[in-house]
Amino acid sequence: MNIIDKVKNTFFTKNFLIFVFCGGMGTLSNMLISSLCSMKIDPTVSYVCGYFGSSLVTYTLNSKLTFHEGLSLHRYVRFVISYIPNFLILFSFVAIFINVLHWNHIFVYGFAAALGLPLTYVIVRIVAFAKKTA
Asked: What is the pTM of this model?
């Protein structure tokens, strides 16, 4: 299978579209939690709260809708671990654009969410929801 076929089989599938929907719901929950927290605490710290709060929403939706798996603590931990590269990239992005460039935090939260989607899908699919072979 060539690289173009691999890309098609990864990103042009029903599961990827469902993953995008689940990510969209996670993004909305992240933005809501982050925005509410930013009324009382620093916007960068608020993003961390929103990110981890939304991980529960995203994990639950992806388990049920994208990967058709039951919920488990073990898989949730693997899910959170698979999100670490995404988190580090997006947290850096948020910190720079809010604290250094002084962009609007609501805009930055939304823009950051769109950046990590393809990378996150591949990592989550491999780390958290990989099918075990005997």
From this structure: 0.67
